[in-house]
Amino acid sequence: MEINLTSETYEGEVLKSDKPVLVDFWAPWCGPCKMVGPVISEIAEEYEGKVKVCKVNVDECGDLAAANAVVSIPTVIIFVDGKPVKKIIGANPADVYEDALDELV
User: Fold this and answer.
1) Which of 104, 83, 63, 99 is nearest to 14 (CA)?
2) 3-45: per-residue pLDDT in tens?
3) What pLDDT digit, counting tens, does each position of 83-104 carry?
4) Which structural domain, as residue segments, surrounds residue 14?
5) What is the CATH classification number for the domain harbouring 41?
């Protein structure tokens, strides 16, 4: 299950999470984001219980994009213990995200 983050829920869901968190920064008008969306949904199912998967709509939560230095989308950031440990920019196949997660879980 993917969690849609807001500025209000970000700290609790990401920074205070006891599991690794994959955050997908995206926008509805972004073509590459539309390609990555189903891949992220698949990862959410595959890693359920091991990794929290969240999404940030940068149009609605520009403050979160700015706070994480997201300058192009899609950008996926993986957090462990509230700290970003991996940033993957652009549309990538599932194995790129899975390899990054497998190093952590």
Assistant:
1) 83
2) 999 999 999 999 999 999 999 999 999 999 999 999 999 999 9
3) 999 999 999 999 999 999 999 8
4) 2-102
5) 3.40.30.10
Nearest alpha carbon to residue 64 among 79, 80, 49, 43: 79
Ordered alpha helix ranges (H), 1-105: 10, 31-46, 62-67, 94-102
Domain total of the chain: 1
Catalytic residues: 30, 33
Please give the pLDDT value at position 46: 96
Q: How distant, in Å, are the alpha carbons of 1, 25, 27, 42 from that of 67? A: 24, 12, 17, 27
Residue 30 has phi, psi (to 5 degrees) of -90, 115
DSSP three-state, residue 47: coil
